[in-house]
Amino acid sequence: MGSPPLKFAALEITGRCQQACSFCYADSSPKGTHGTMKIPDWERTIGDLAELGTRTVQFIGGEPTLHPFLGRLIAYAHGAGLVEVEVFSNLVHVRDELWGIFRTCGVRLATTYLSDNPRQHDRITRLPGSHRRTRANIQRAKELGIPLRAGVIGPRSGQRVQNAAEDLRTLGVTQVKTDRTRSLGRAGRNGGQTVDALCGQCAHEQCAIGPDGYVWPCAMGRFLYAGNVLHTPLADIWHGARMAEVAAAIRDVHGPPGAESCTPPQCLPWCGPCQPCAPQAGRHADSIDGPD
């Protein structure tokens, strides 16, 4: 059986982030780097995606707005004919020139919002003031007419998950999803990372590419790398034996790809349906104080 089409790719252009969320699947933080992929490498990769017929690219991190050339890469993807470009950002800080690029290139935004209570949100992100700044930039995106979807990761002890979702709706965000904390990245550090923590969509018409060129079945499945675009053409990786092995390993655990009831907001923008999570935290979720 041949490889499925590659419709979606998440491009993790940096491992740096202002925040250090306890659930971060990428284990990103202010200590992260932009990796070894240079701008020509990213542009070549975006061109390869266009040739493969990929419709959507999502710039992620880390925090993609911290990359000094995010605007250039967005414009390149837009010019290469990608149907949709999305930026998954914490929206803590967006440079003025990026707002203009978002509008010019028809960029969609996605973000994570953790509580309607500022102190609770900031405890999870470990960045004082993050709630205020993220909420203000959600408002700005809506005022500028930039499409935005949001996810709430939880619940942890006392976390105001449904309150956060309702606050997003009052801001005019109509696409709101929730997901449990998954035992991956920082949240899976104590017990290892296994395929059962994934949603099962990985490697099905999608992949992710990291800041050092490694190709993964999805952004969360980085422990299942299938090749490196710095050494091997992306088409060869996507159609190669290693990616087929990775996809088979995921199917062995999850069965044939199909939307589960609790899809992580980091996943494909069109994944669904998605309902509120069951009332328990993931295996390695941190407990946090309730709202003051």
UniProtKB/TrEMBL annotation:
Sorted UniProt keywords: Iron, Iron-sulfur, Metal-binding, S-adenosyl-L-methionine
Keyword Transcription: no
InterPro entries, alphabetized: 4Fe4S-binding_SPASM_dom, Aldolase_TIM, Elp3/MiaA/NifB-like_rSAM, Radical_SAM_PqqE_MftC-like, rSAM, rSAM_sf
Keyword Cell inner membrane attached: no
SMART domains linked: Elp3
Residues of the Elp3/MiaA/NifB-like radical SAM core domain: 7-252
Protein origin, superkingdom: Bacteria
Protein name in the entry: Elp3/MiaA/NifB-like radical SAM core domain-containing protein
Native species: Streptomyces synnematoformans
Lineage: Bacteria, Bacillati, Actinomycetota, Actinomycetes, Kitasatosporales
